[in-house]
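Action item from last week, closing it out:
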Amino acid sequence: MSDSTDITADAGEQVESSEVEVQGFKAPASQDELDRIIQKRLDRERSRFSDYDDVKARAEKAAELESVAADLRKRVEQFESRDARSALVKKVAADNGVDADLLAEMRGDSEDDLTAQAKRLADRLKPASPVIPGQAKSPENAPRDELREFARQLFNKD
């Protein structure tokens, strides 16, 4: 075989050591040398994965941050829906002349549901008798004080 031809050995064919050295391979002379070569190769391979623990820690941190972000998105959606319902309740309460706090306690999230609830509330909260303006200022409802009571007792007017 020549150096310019392919250096391959068929089964059972002897390959000369000079031809093997041409390719750059040198057989280890002792077990210690073989162990050293294997250890170098293992070290090179381990160095490729030396940052595995760091990458794993970063991946765990990223997963944790993703779950926190998902929780925060969920909370933001809850706050936005709560604000939207609150604005809708105020609008429907103002349109129907009902207290917004009472209407907020009612069920329903759509404008139609809240309007129906507001109408029911308005019907139930109507006064049974007519309201007289200034009725709260009538003499029967006047606040009682000690001087006035003394004067009534003095003149026997009850």
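Closing note: The CA atoms of residues 31 and 37 lie 10 Å apart.
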